[in-house]
Automatic annotation (TrEMBL):
One of its GO terms (molecular function) is 4 iron, 4 sulfur cluster binding. Keywords: 4Fe-4S, Gluconeogenesis, Iron, Iron-sulfur, Lyase, Metal-binding. The keyword Iron applies. It holds the Pfam family SDH_alpha. This is L-serine dehydratase 1. It comes from Rhizophagus irregularis. The keyword Cytoplasm does not apply. Its cofactor is [4Fe-4S] cluster. Residues 219-507 form the Serine dehydratase-like alpha subunit domain.
Length: 513
């Protein structure tokens, strides 16, 4: 008998706009190339296996079929969706999977036609046959829809579940949709909802930028301090600090991996050459021309915080620094490496690049507090976009990814530079205002062109937006709430071919050969 499982992750008495989003939901560790098409589907597949176990039918399963719809079907192959689902069905999670083992394991599945459900139950599985791409059909709820169907030995369908990947690695199930709880379903089964169901109310709930600033003024707190107080409702001080630093360390490591990579080309049909290593080498030579003969000794110097004396003795081009760091991260993402959703994989280079630039070339301390202030401030802005609009390119186009990341980074940079609440809001607004209408049109469905360069430009725009806000004396004419609503309306009006389907824009005007 066909059964549709009810998720155990729904929360009562919570509406969409008041849904609590933790910093650690918005920033989560995962693998490339896409949070909506790789991380989300892997989590959905893992969740389906858990549901099979919870309903005591896991042992009966001998066959599974996966149906992909809308954007997941149209760009899923280029985004690594099938492989992510296979790994999720085998029990892997985006934050813990060993990226070095993915390619050989996928090859083994294709060679043997054997899939090990949750790593223990081998079943016959032919990817070309059992993963169905519905290129001309979308499920009514969200363009990133997928359906999992499980069969027993007699061929009877015993279980079915639909999931929707809503951007940034977030997934929602059928139950959450029917109960009007969009945005509540968290990113993994170890989430805060499951751990502490009695502590769902945040200390300072907010749904708009206006409310956010009002609370901060009333409580005499910075945005980062307010977010921190909310996080304390769910985790201890030690846990919060540990997780923030873990997130930053992965961000920093992705910059390092991208800058020092020895792999010449990114995977996929486009044969895109990695540029971060060459750009990084040139940046070093420009900064240390007098040490060119001892280049090996300074190879790693820029990947560590620079001493104050060193900073004064070198000349740095901020555009070059932001570009190389952002490109490094997104090339790692394109190669399927480990990155942090910030707030998505496609835009994962913007925030790390701006934060690392601040720590290396501006901060006098490079302290953990500054890192926490930066990430908590950016998270607050990201929460607003997630609650009031969307961070899914399949819904909003690239304005929902690079645009949101730019807005988040601009606000955070303004904050650590000592900006007022109004200047921080203004920086976030400017960051989005000049990304409105940005399309998502990846060539051949790969998260490479134009995605990688857009991260560099997103970081540069973020700095420009913050600087403009910090130096302006006039009151902004456009509020952050207004620009978020404008982004939402623009995304709704945008044609589907410009929303992560590779059916318009660069995707159809640039020859693949």
């Amino acid at each position: 008998m066909l059964s549709s499982f009810r998720s155990d992750s729904s929360v009562s008495n919570t509406n969409e706009n008041d849904a609590v989003i933790s910093t650690f939901d918005l920033f989560s560790i995962g693998i490339g190339p896409s949070s909506s098409h790789t991380v989300g589907p892997m989590r959905a597949a893992k969740k389906f296996i858990e549901e099979l176990k919870q309903n005591n039918v896991f042992h009966k399963i001998t066959r599974i079929r996966i149906d992909l719809y809308g954007s997941l079907a149209l760009t899923g192959k280029g985004h690594g969706t099938p492989n992510a689902i296979l790994m999720g069905l085998e029990g892997e999670t985006p934050d813990e999977i060993d990226t070095a083992k993915i390619v050989p394991r996928i090859a083994q599945i294709y060679e043997t036609d054997i899939l090990k459900l949750d790593g223990m139950n081998p079943i016959k599985f032919i990817p070309e046959k059992h993963i169905i791409f519905h290129y001309h059909e979308s499920l009514p709820i969200h363009p990133n829809g997928m359906r999992f169907i499980a069969f027993d030995e007699q061929g009877d369908c015993v279980a079915s579940s639909e999931f929707f990947s809503t951007g940034g690695g977030f997934i929602i199930g059928e139950t959450e949709i029917h109960e009007n709880r969009k945005n509540i379903f968290r990113k993994n089964n170890n989430d805060l909802i499951k751990q502490k169901q009695n502590a769902m109310s945040s200390a300072f709930p907010f749904s708009t930028a206006g409310e956010l600033l009002q609370i901060c003024k009333r409580e005499n707190m910075t945005i980062a301090q307010m977010v921190y107080q909310n996080e304390l409702q769910w985790r201890s001080k030690g846990e919060i600090k540990k997780k923030v630093m873990e997130i930053w360390n992965i961000m920093d490591q992705s910059i390092r991996n991208g800058c020092l990579s020895t792999v010449e080309y990114l995977p996929g049909s486009l044969k895109v050459r990695r540029r971060a290593p060459g750009l990084y080498n040139k940046l070093l030579k420009d900064m240390y021309p007098q040490n060119s003969s001892n280049y090996t000794a300074i190879k790693n110097s820029l990947l560590q915080p620079l001493a104050a004396a060193t900073r004064k003795s070198i000349t740095v081009n901020v555009l070059d620094v932001i570009s190389v760091y952002a490109i490094a991260v997104n090339e790692e993402n394109a190669a399927g490496g480990k990155v942090v959703t910030a707030p998505t994989n496609g835009a994962s280079g913007v925030i790390p690049a701006v934060l690392k630039y601040y720590l290396e070339f501006i901060s006098e301390q490079s302290s953990e507090k500054e890192i926490m202030d930066f990430l908590f401030t950016s998270a607050a802005i990201g929460m607003l976009y997630k609650k009031r609009a969307s961070i899914s390119a399949a819904e909003m186009g690239c304005q929902g990814e690079i645009g949101v990341a730019c807005s988040m980074a601009a606000a955070a940079f303004a904050a650590v530079m000592g900006g007022t609440l109004e200047q921080i809001e203004d920086a976030a607004e400017i960051g989005m205002e000049h990304n409105l209408g940005l399309t998502c049109d990846p060539i051949d469905g790969l998260v490479q062109i134009p995605c990688i360069e857009r991260n560099a430009l997103g970081g540069i725009k973020a700095l420009g937006a913050a600087q403009l806000a910090l130096r302006s004396r006039s009151v902004a004419k456009v509020t952050l709430d207004q620009v978020i609503e404008t982004m939402r309306q623009t995304g709704i009006d945008m044609q589907t071919k410009y929303k992560e389907t590779s059916q318009g824009g660069l995707a159809v005007n640039v020859p693949l050969c």
